[in-house]
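Late entry, protoporphyrin IX containing FE complex.
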Amino acid sequence: MDAIEVVTRLGAPEGRANPYPLYATLHEIGEVVEAGPAGVLVVGYDAINSVLRDPGFRVSDESSFDEDLPGWRANPVFVQGADWILNLNAPRHPRIRSLIARAFTPRRIAGLEPAITAMADELLDGMADRGADGSAVEFMHDFAYLLPVTVICELIGIPEADRGGFRPLARDLAGVFEVTDAEALPAINAAAAELLAYFTALAGQRRADPRDDLLSDLLAVSDADSGQLTGAELLHNLTLLLVAGFETTTNLLGNGLHIVLHDRPAGAALRDGPVPPSAFVEEVLRFDSPVQLTSRIGYDTKVGGVPVSAGIGVTTLLGAGNRDPRRFADPDRFDPMRPDGGPLSFGGGAHFCIGAALARLEGRVAFPRLLNRFPKIAAAGEPVRRDRLVLRGFDELPVTVA
Ligand code: HEM
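Prediction complete; structure with ligand written out below:
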């Protein structure tokens, strides 16, 4: 099978359902692979790291929108997206990212642990009630979707009474990562506009009456450095936190439970045995990464000995790098105690995930509590995968807990 055929298969439902054998084929072809119209695929662990850390590789930004998305300014999601740090290069990227990072402090993240624990326990109580008679409960719906979105609301400072409407909006907005047809755009735009209106009103309240939350801190940062972070840049990046932090973490939780349901010793080793929760989370991230790929625009250079030309699309396949046999011994084995950990799932370099510590904390809290509460948790029927390649996870993961 050549690289172009692998790409075709990765785009088909079976490839999206299980891309790992296709990644193994790519590893046999090379660390960096030319794939015709699909551009350059970077599949080796070291090569991915070097691309993500090399400032010569740029992310798609406003100028790419101008070239590839005529009329993008008529779409609220792209207007916001043009300010998302994910879509910015220097000098805007370091300016805005450093201001956001100033509010996204380790102290603020660590301070969320008691709230995350309480939220997780409340959701587990609900699952216990619904599943007490042995009937199936739906883990994605009842736990994995609810925990991360509630945590982001808590982080930003969204009042509890307003949180109910966020989940569907955040979910619609996250569709922007895989827009394959124009039909999906109206719902994405509507969610983007509604969230922006909400954040604008909430920012007005927090400016008048600051609280101990991320939004109040960001407003203080932007007001103190007047002109450093515009109101629009601040508000637009709040919607980014929702899209970037919600479904990704949902998938970490779902993918981790799916592993345990099919590998009972792995669950027992976390619950009763030697595996620390942090090691378990790292191995889930490596073994079945919630984000499978990200992309850059090339410049005239070489990666892994392969020439890359200016302007060409470069896809870094994080999910493949995580299974690189040159980097990981027995890469297809789930082994939280492996000495050679270090997944690429949060990216690397200037755009390294700003929420990595938060996502890790959620996983560290959630998995042990889930498995201790429900030692008999078992699959109840076939899981339903979300038919996507970039964000990998499940729509439904039915389980019994009694
Ligand atoms: C398991 C969960 C998560 C995974 C796997 C993940 C993965 C990633 C990856 C791969 C990138 C880099 C993309 C690139 O280089 O093109 C990224 C960036 C980002 N992530 Fe996460 N993420 C997760 C959770 C979160 C959370 C909880 C938040 C916030 C609440 C968050 C906010 C962001 C932001 C704002 C960026 C953009 C950083 C920049 O461009 O400078 N993520 N994430």
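The longest helix spans residues 185-208. Will revisit in the morning.
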